Amino acid sequence: MPNFRHINGFHDGADTRLVPVEELGRAYKSVLIRKVSKKLLSHVDEMGAQKFREVLSDYLNASRGLQTTHENIMITRGSQMAIYLLTLVLFSKGENIIVGDTNYYYADALFKAAGMNINRVKVDDQGIDVDAVERLFTFNPRLAELVDLKYFAGFSFVDIAKMWGLSERTVQRDWEKARLFLHRVLSQADKSMLTL
Q1: Percent of the chain with pLDDT strictly greater than 90
Q2: For residue 81, what are the contacts with CB-CB under 8 A and spacing of at least 6?
Q3: Residue 103: closest CA among 126, 82, 127, 86
Q4: Which of 49, 51, 76, 105 could form a disulfide with 81, with the two C-beta atoms 3.0–4.6 Å apart?
């Protein structure tokens, strides 16, 4: 797989040579000199403007079948802030995350700083290769359920052991099996099925 990370602009933001600085300056100036624009510079709720969150909530409820209120929605200042907050909430040091081969450079840096193990999956014109991830869920239903409980439900090894009537050490060994299997599948070049 070719490494595109050396290309200018690929991982260090937009190519600043292409930014229309003069046009942007004129546009900002024309907005900021208006008296009505002063309120745009004032403080807003840290969750984002309430009216915008209400409209977004209504839209998500109507178009996606969700059941949200404006209190369930937080507006971030950009994708990096959203990724940072989600990483803090959803992941712990030493956990695995699956990303595309050409993942966002700063997201990778954030995941590394959080102590996460980054597992890359090939990406083609159809998107990320989900077969490698799906294989984890087909080889052993108990390991698949363990991944579900640990990653998505947030249960600890102790909680899972109590639910299943197993020792904590057995659950940890199963977790290692699942991790190793996923690692082998993700690193396998020809994507053929492996068994433990």
Answers
A1: 20
A2: none
A3: 127
A4: 76
Measured CA to CA, the distance from residue 68 to residue 175 in angstroms comes to 34
Task: Give the CB-side neighbour count of residue 173, counting CA atoms within 13 A.
Answer: 5
pLDDT tens digits for range 35-78: 776 766 666 778 888 999 999 999 999 998 889 999 999 999 88
Q: Global pTM?
A: 0.49
- What's the CA gap between 189 and 187, in Å, rounded? 6
Q: Strands 127-128 and 123-124: what pairing?
A: antiparallel
Per-residue HEC secondary structure of 129-186 comes to CCHHHHHHHHHCHHHHHHHHHHHHCCCCHHHHHHHHCCCHHHHHHHHHHHHHHHHHHH
pLDDT computed for residue 40 by the predictor: 66
Q: Which of 90, 112, 95, 123 is nearest to 179 (CA)?
A: 95
CA–CA distance, 173 with 60 (Å, rounded to integer): 41
